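Hey L., structure's done. Input below.
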Amino acid sequence: MENQKINSSDEIDLSQLFNKIGDFFINIGLGIMRFFALLRRIPLENKPLFIVVILASIIVGFSYSNFIKKKFFESTMILSSDYLNKRLVDNTIDKLNLLAEEENKHGLAKVLNISNSLAYNIVKFDAKPFVAEKDLIELEVLKEQLKNAQAESKNGKVIEQVINRIEIENRHAFEITVRTYNPTVIDTLQTALVNFFKNNEYIKKRIEINKSNLLEKKTKLTHDLQKLDSLKFIIYDNYKNMAAQSKQGSNNVILSDKSVTNPIEIYNQDLNLYNELQGINARIHLQSDFEVIDGFAEFSEPSSASLRKVLAISILIGIGVAYLTVALSAFDKYLASFS
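Output:
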């Protein structure tokens, strides 16, 4: 009997609890509805104020867009270099932005080696990695996992080939954005900006060293190919003479199984060196260690906010000001009731 009383009291308490939770959410919903109803009622009760404020906002927005705010144009360039990193690019862009913020743009004109008139048209620079840092970190983690698997696996060569092929393309590329008041200076600015990065002492020395190494390697490969060509002619003549002999025992050099020279290996090595030489020539001409993947484009439409967007923002701000005016007026009347 006592257990039944306890159970019935528990059920009553739970039902009361659920009723209170339901009332709580109902009150919240009613509060939200009252708030929206208040927002609707205020403009209807204060039509003159809202009309005047909205008209004033339209006039201010139109004047700001056409007479006060300068229109700027924006373009993006993708610059790739084996010697660029995020810290170096960020530091360089920050310095350029500090110079661009100065009223006297002579410093910016000097470092970029451009005219003062062009420097006065520059608004701002921006840069970000073309490949997200998250992807680069995931790539490095994957490579480490593959290297660990390579040490434990019998198929080490296969895993090594996989590691070499999963390198992200353009991992050293950066998107560099420039804002300018005049779109016609974009081409000139691209040349100046590329030269500015390229003439950095850290990058300049490495470009020169890399080019010198490539030229030296090209010279060596060219000499090696010439020697291999001479050796191929000798081997060819030797086999030709051997085929012409009806009997062995002549003064010709005969390549037996014990011979060090393998003609097939020589021809394969000649082909490998030739392919390597072609790759060296391509790297010298393309300068892939520092190159512009995609340059600036000259746009006729400004990137700054359009008149329609400015007017929309102005109207929204005006409506907010009107609501705030009504609220302050009501609060003032409330304070006056205590005096």
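The radius of gyration is 38 Å. The chain has eleven helices and four strands.

-- N.
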